[in-house]
Every structure is written in C-alpha cells, then in structure tokens.
C-alpha cells in the first residue's frame, strides 16, 4: 500500500510542474445543498484537469532508459493530455490511443501538446489493444490511466492541498470525487485516511460519485469483484472506464460509499456551477455535486470537500 511518505514525495516531485489550484466556496450552492461545500478547482490545473498530477508523477519516476522512446497511454481525453504534457516537459514523444467518440476539444488538446493521437473504437478492449500495439511498435513506456500506484500517488496530491487549504476553518466530514477507473478516488481516499479527521476525531468519510450510465464501480464496491457496467450511456465521458483490481482494493478499504446520479442531474449540477460560480467544469466533474444535491438529506449540515476534476468541455 502507498504510504503517506509516498504521497508526500509525489507532491514534492511534481510541484514545479503543476498549479496549486484554489479552493472555492459558494454561499448559494451551500444553501441549496444545506451543507458547507469546498470545491478544489482542478479545472484550473495544467491541461485543465487533475490528471496532470498523476501523469507527471509517473513520468518523472521512470528511468531515462525507460522513457527514452517516449510515453504511451490510452485515454478518453484528460489522462492523454497529462501524458502528452509530461512528455513535452521531458522532451520525448507521446502516443495516445483515444476513442473516436472522445470530445474533439480533448483530441485537439492532446495534439497541441505534441502527442500522436491514434483513434480506436469506444471500448476498453479496443483501447487496451491499441496501446499494447503502440508499445510493441515504438518501445514507449506505458503510463496506465489509473492502474498504477505512481499515478494514484500523483492524484492524491489534490486532496492533500484541499485539506491543507480548507478555507472554512471546519474539519471535513466528507470528501468526494467522481469514479471512473478509480485512480482519483483511490488517491483521494488514501490522502484522506492519512490526513483528515472530523471534529469528533473520527476519520473523514470518502464518497464517490458515479453516473448511472456507467455504473460498474458501485457494483464492484458491493460484490468485491471487478464488474462491468450493465450499459454505457452517459454525458460523463471521463467516467466510462471500469475499475482495476488495484483501484477496487483501495476503494473497498478506504471509501465509505458510491452514489449514483443520472445525466439530467449531472447537467443540472454542471449548469449550476457555471452560472453561480462562473467557472467552466466538464460533465464528469459535476457528478459529486449532483450526488450531494440528489441525496441532500444524507449530507445536510456537513462540511464537504469536492474535487472539481476538470474543465475540458466542448462548448459547441
């Protein structure tokens, strides 16, 4: 298991390459939720998403000989940008396998960082086969989007900063993040376990948010086995990947619950942040807030930290 020192080392390692993003609040949204919410704004991060943290940490831990032929990954968008950004900083090539249905704004951004985009069918099998082929052809080092402790440690640093920079003066009762492949929620849960307690001294709970249209994590959480979603159909394009054994292990040990929300609730939460906080977030990013609003009675009168994961949305 990753130690607190591993998380601290990751934070120090990536510090020159990332922004320390702000923690913002909204009195209006607090009133609607009946709770005190603190938003960690990773939509202001390098590449427009928290993924810069994990991608950079993994790339920096590779030996020169390992990364000599470049970096490779598969991604619906944000992790691809992270790996492309890391490769740009290290002056090496990057190869990113992306589903053909990924938002054009994300494909364009990956290319803008100098990476080669290889499109594939929008399935996890096609993505994994595509990146395996690229690694075989080029000798590039694979940086998996979530099934990698180096990536998980990097993602944890957003929560380290959220806890350190909490503007409310009140300890967090709950910290929330969306769940796709589980890299962020794993890092969030570890950092929370090590660093955050409630006012009465108990551990702060970690709760994930997942779209009903990609509901594999909630099934896996209950069964203890990596499950597949009954169907994939959601606006939250960044949350379609299934968990790995690694991330499921972290989730089962350190996450209290996973809440489901539908696309209408995701859109409403996204619009609320755009209109009330005047900041741009993508649909996947809005899932935890949608959960707080849907399950209001469970969150009332609590202090809740929410990782706003990214802002890479196609405005068209």
TrEMBL record:
One of its GO terms (molecular function) is magnesium ion binding. SUPFAM superfamilies: Tryptophan synthase beta subunit-like PLP-dependent enzymes. The keyword Lyase applies. It holds the Pfam family PALP. The keyword Thylakoid does not apply. This is Threonine/serine dehydratase. Its cofactor is pyridoxal 5'-phosphate. It comes from the Bacteria. Residues 14-310 form the Tryptophan synthase beta chain-like PALP domain. One of its GO terms (biological process) is D-serine biosynthetic process. Keywords: Lyase, Pyridoxal phosphate. InterPro entries: TrpB-like_PALP, TrpB-like_PALP_sf. Belongs to the serine/threonine dehydratase family.
